[in-house]
Design brief:
There is one protein chain. This protein is of the alpha+beta class. The protein has a single domain, classed as Roll (Nuclear Transport Factor 2, Chain: A). Helix content is 34%, strand content 40%. Helix 1 packs antiparallel against helix 3, helix 3 runs antiparallel to helix 4 and helix 4 packs antiparallel against helix 5. The chain is globular, with a radius of gyration of 18 Å.
Length: 209
Protein backbone atom coordinates (compact mmCIF):
# COMPACT_ATOMS: atom_id res chain seq x y z
CA UNK A 1 0.00 0.00 0.00
CA UNK A 2 2.98 2.30 0.53
CA UNK A 3 3.63 2.23 -3.23
CA UNK A 4 0.12 3.59 -3.77
CA UNK A 5 0.88 6.64 -1.65
CA UNK A 6 4.25 7.23 -3.28
CA UNK A 7 2.48 7.27 -6.65
CA UNK A 8 -0.24 9.55 -5.23
CA UNK A 9 2.38 11.91 -3.81
CA UNK A 10 4.34 11.99 -7.09
CA UNK A 11 1.10 12.66 -8.95
CA UNK A 12 0.34 15.52 -6.54
CA UNK A 13 3.78 17.09 -7.11
CA UNK A 14 3.50 16.79 -10.90
CA UNK A 15 -0.02 18.23 -10.97
CA UNK A 16 0.96 21.09 -8.69
CA UNK A 17 4.03 21.85 -10.82
CA UNK A 18 1.89 21.89 -13.95
CA UNK A 19 -0.63 24.13 -12.26
CA UNK A 20 1.94 26.62 -10.98
CA UNK A 21 3.66 26.66 -14.37
CA UNK A 22 0.46 28.09 -15.81
CA UNK A 23 0.42 30.97 -13.32
CA UNK A 24 1.54 34.21 -14.95
CA UNK A 25 4.45 35.80 -13.08
CA UNK A 26 3.81 39.39 -12.01
CA UNK A 27 6.58 41.80 -12.94
CA UNK A 28 8.64 43.20 -10.08
CA UNK A 29 7.83 46.81 -9.22
CA UNK A 30 4.27 46.43 -10.47
CA UNK A 31 1.35 47.61 -8.36
CA UNK A 32 0.69 44.23 -6.81
CA UNK A 33 4.27 44.08 -5.51
CA UNK A 34 4.30 47.53 -3.95
CA UNK A 35 0.98 47.87 -2.10
CA UNK A 36 1.27 46.51 1.42
CA UNK A 37 -1.76 45.77 3.55
CA UNK A 38 -4.21 47.08 0.94
CA UNK A 39 -6.54 45.36 -1.50
CA UNK A 40 -4.78 44.17 -4.62
CA UNK A 41 -6.87 43.99 -7.77
CA UNK A 42 -5.78 41.12 -9.96
CA UNK A 43 -6.76 40.47 -13.56
CA UNK A 44 -9.47 37.95 -14.30
CA UNK A 45 -6.84 35.69 -15.86
CA UNK A 46 -4.81 35.69 -12.64
CA UNK A 47 -7.92 35.01 -10.55
CA UNK A 48 -8.79 32.14 -12.87
CA UNK A 49 -5.28 30.74 -12.41
CA UNK A 50 -5.50 30.97 -8.63
CA UNK A 51 -8.96 29.40 -8.81
CA UNK A 52 -7.64 26.51 -10.91
CA UNK A 53 -4.82 25.89 -8.45
CA UNK A 54 -7.25 26.05 -5.53
CA UNK A 55 -9.45 23.45 -7.26
CA UNK A 56 -6.38 21.20 -7.71
CA UNK A 57 -5.72 21.42 -3.97
CA UNK A 58 -9.37 20.72 -3.15
CA UNK A 59 -9.35 17.67 -5.43
CA UNK A 60 -6.40 16.27 -3.51
CA UNK A 61 -8.06 17.10 -0.19
CA UNK A 62 -11.15 15.16 -1.33
CA UNK A 63 -9.05 12.12 -2.30
CA UNK A 64 -7.29 12.12 1.06
CA UNK A 65 -10.55 12.50 3.01
CA UNK A 66 -12.06 9.54 1.14
CA UNK A 67 -9.08 7.40 2.17
CA UNK A 68 -9.22 8.65 5.77
CA UNK A 69 -12.93 7.85 6.12
CA UNK A 70 -12.89 4.53 4.24
CA UNK A 71 -13.30 1.66 6.71
CA UNK A 72 -11.64 -0.75 4.26
CA UNK A 73 -8.34 1.19 4.23
CA UNK A 74 -5.42 0.17 6.47
CA UNK A 75 -4.62 2.36 9.47
CA UNK A 76 -1.14 3.27 8.18
CA UNK A 77 -2.61 4.33 4.84
CA UNK A 78 -5.11 6.56 6.63
CA UNK A 79 -2.34 8.18 8.67
CA UNK A 80 -0.32 8.78 5.50
CA UNK A 81 -3.37 10.45 3.94
CA UNK A 82 -3.79 12.65 7.02
CA UNK A 83 -0.19 13.87 6.73
CA UNK A 84 -0.60 14.60 3.02
CA UNK A 85 -3.85 16.48 3.66
CA UNK A 86 -2.26 18.60 6.41
CA UNK A 87 0.45 19.54 3.89
CA UNK A 88 -2.16 21.33 1.77
CA UNK A 89 -2.66 23.87 4.56
CA UNK A 90 -0.62 26.86 5.69
CA UNK A 91 0.31 25.17 8.97
CA UNK A 92 -0.99 22.81 11.66
CA UNK A 93 -2.83 25.68 13.37
CA UNK A 94 -5.26 26.16 10.48
CA UNK A 95 -8.87 25.94 11.64
CA UNK A 96 -11.56 23.97 9.82
CA UNK A 97 -15.23 24.33 10.72
CA UNK A 98 -17.43 21.23 10.47
CA UNK A 99 -21.21 21.22 10.22
CA UNK A 100 -24.10 18.84 9.72
CA UNK A 101 -27.84 19.19 9.37
CA UNK A 102 -29.60 20.33 12.56
CA UNK A 103 -26.32 20.50 14.53
CA UNK A 104 -24.17 23.41 15.62
CA UNK A 105 -20.98 24.17 13.71
CA UNK A 106 -17.79 23.00 15.45
CA UNK A 107 -14.21 24.19 15.00
CA UNK A 108 -11.08 22.02 14.88
CA UNK A 109 -7.43 22.46 14.03
CA UNK A 110 -6.79 20.67 10.74
CA UNK A 111 -5.17 17.48 12.08
CA UNK A 112 -7.88 17.05 14.72
CA UNK A 113 -10.53 17.59 12.03
CA UNK A 114 -9.03 14.84 9.87
CA UNK A 115 -8.91 12.42 12.80
CA UNK A 116 -12.60 13.20 13.46
CA UNK A 117 -13.34 12.22 9.87
CA UNK A 118 -11.45 8.98 10.44
CA UNK A 119 -13.83 8.19 13.30
CA UNK A 120 -17.07 8.84 11.39
CA UNK A 121 -19.52 5.92 11.58
CA UNK A 122 -19.82 5.65 7.79
CA UNK A 123 -18.27 2.97 5.60
CA UNK A 124 -17.34 5.32 2.74
CA UNK A 125 -17.69 9.04 1.99
CA UNK A 126 -17.72 10.99 -1.27
CA UNK A 127 -16.94 14.70 -1.48
CA UNK A 128 -17.58 16.91 -4.49
CA UNK A 129 -16.64 20.61 -4.77
CA UNK A 130 -18.39 22.98 -7.19
CA UNK A 131 -19.07 26.65 -8.03
CA UNK A 132 -15.83 28.14 -6.71
CA UNK A 133 -15.45 31.92 -6.89
CA UNK A 134 -13.34 34.54 -5.10
CA UNK A 135 -15.39 36.84 -2.89
CA UNK A 136 -12.62 39.28 -1.94
CA UNK A 137 -9.68 41.07 -3.47
CA UNK A 138 -6.28 39.67 -2.62
CA UNK A 139 -4.45 41.52 0.12
CA UNK A 140 -0.68 41.72 0.48
CA UNK A 141 0.17 40.66 4.04
CA UNK A 142 3.12 41.91 6.10
CA UNK A 143 4.86 38.54 5.53
CA UNK A 144 4.86 39.11 1.76
CA UNK A 145 2.13 36.55 0.99
CA UNK A 146 -1.21 37.34 -0.62
CA UNK A 147 -4.52 36.39 0.91
CA UNK A 148 -8.04 36.14 -0.48
CA UNK A 149 -11.30 34.38 0.29
CA UNK A 150 -12.76 31.75 -2.03
CA UNK A 151 -16.35 30.58 -1.64
CA UNK A 152 -17.18 27.06 -2.74
CA UNK A 153 -19.94 24.50 -2.29
CA UNK A 154 -19.15 21.05 -0.90
CA UNK A 155 -21.43 18.04 -1.45
CA UNK A 156 -20.86 15.40 1.24
CA UNK A 157 -22.27 11.90 0.78
CA UNK A 158 -21.86 9.03 3.27
CA UNK A 159 -22.67 5.40 2.53
CA UNK A 160 -23.04 2.19 4.47
CA UNK A 161 -21.33 -1.10 3.62
CA UNK A 162 -24.14 -2.02 1.23
CA UNK A 163 -23.60 1.18 -0.75
CA UNK A 164 -26.76 2.93 0.42
CA UNK A 165 -26.68 6.58 1.43
CA UNK A 166 -26.69 7.23 5.17
CA UNK A 167 -26.29 10.98 4.98
CA UNK A 168 -26.10 13.75 2.35
CA UNK A 169 -25.65 17.50 2.69
CA UNK A 170 -24.38 20.52 0.76
CA UNK A 171 -22.31 23.11 2.60
CA UNK A 172 -21.29 26.57 1.46
CA UNK A 173 -17.75 27.22 2.70
CA UNK A 174 -15.44 30.22 2.78
CA UNK A 175 -11.81 29.22 2.33
CA UNK A 176 -8.87 31.41 3.22
CA UNK A 177 -6.53 31.11 0.23
CA UNK A 178 -2.90 32.09 0.80
CA UNK A 179 -0.68 32.61 -2.23
CA UNK A 180 3.08 33.03 -2.03
CA UNK A 181 5.91 33.24 -4.51
CA UNK A 182 8.46 30.48 -4.15
CA UNK A 183 11.82 29.83 -5.80
CA UNK A 184 11.75 26.85 -8.16
CA UNK A 185 14.86 25.43 -9.84
CA UNK A 186 14.58 25.11 -13.62
CA UNK A 187 17.81 23.85 -15.12
CA UNK A 188 20.47 26.37 -14.15
CA UNK A 189 17.91 29.06 -13.35
CA UNK A 190 15.81 29.93 -10.32
CA UNK A 191 12.31 31.01 -11.26
CA UNK A 192 9.49 32.50 -9.21
CA UNK A 193 6.17 30.66 -9.15
CA UNK A 194 2.91 31.13 -7.28
CA UNK A 195 1.92 28.44 -4.77
CA UNK A 196 -1.50 28.13 -3.10
CA UNK A 197 -2.07 26.94 0.47
CA UNK A 198 -5.26 26.79 2.51
CA UNK A 199 -5.68 28.76 5.72
CA UNK A 200 -8.90 28.57 7.75
CA UNK A 201 -12.07 27.06 6.31
CA UNK A 202 -15.37 28.43 7.63
CA UNK A 203 -18.94 27.20 7.20
CA UNK A 204 -21.42 29.68 5.76
CA UNK A 205 -24.48 27.43 5.33
CA UNK A 206 -25.42 23.73 5.37
CA UNK A 207 -28.53 22.35 3.69
CA UNK A 208 -30.00 19.20 2.19
CA UNK A 209 -29.32 18.48 -1.46
Amino acid sequence: MKEKYLILLLFFVCELSNSTAQIKNLTEGSEIETITGESVRLSQAQLDDFGAQTRHQLDFLSKYIKIIADKSEATNDKLDAINLAVGLFRDEKSIVEASSLNKATKRYVIREYLHKIRQLPYYKVDIEWFDIFFTSDFTLRPDGKYEGIATIYQKFEARNKEGNYNYVDITKKNIQVIVERIDVSSGNKIEKEWRVKFGNIKVAETKTK
